[in-house]
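Usage

Read records sequentially. Each one opens with the input sequence:
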Amino acid sequence: LAWLLVPLTDMLARRIGAIDQPNERGLHEVPTPRLGGLAILVGVLAAGALWLPWNDETRAILGGAALIAAVGALDDIFDLPAGWKLVGQLVAAAIPVSAGVTVQNFTVPFLGRVDPGTVDLVDLPLLGGIDLGDAATVIGIVAIMNVINFIDGVDGLAAGICVISALTLATV
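and closes with the structure output:
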């Protein structure tokens, strides 16, 4: 579905001027349309609606995905300042966390299992009532968004890495 929608996002990008112009930092030699993330979003939303259980967690995950895709589209069109993008990422990551999608536990080599839910940040004045697992989940989601964003300079690289990651996680 995403592959089929790319030509439509290409036409939309050209119509509204969301074009990545060649520059010294980029790898494009010709002007390249942006907004391909919208095609990917539609594919993700369709797959989620078809194959995931339709509950609060799924709706929150897909809602967070829709929000961060909207932030990305706005950035493609208006070149948002980094601070605004970070705020959008934090809010988008907080949506699934608020619905209970959080890190329950993880393992650290040589230390074993860590349960962040047992550490409450309520005693810290600026972080009152925030669970460490919730905070770690938001930070982790924002970190992954930025890692993917940083490798998105080469056509197909970020998409390829995401497909490999998705297939690996699906297998696990």
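Summary fields computed downstream for this record:
- The CA atoms of residues 39 and 60 lie 20 Å apart.
- The beta strands are 19-20, 32-33, 106-108, 112-114.
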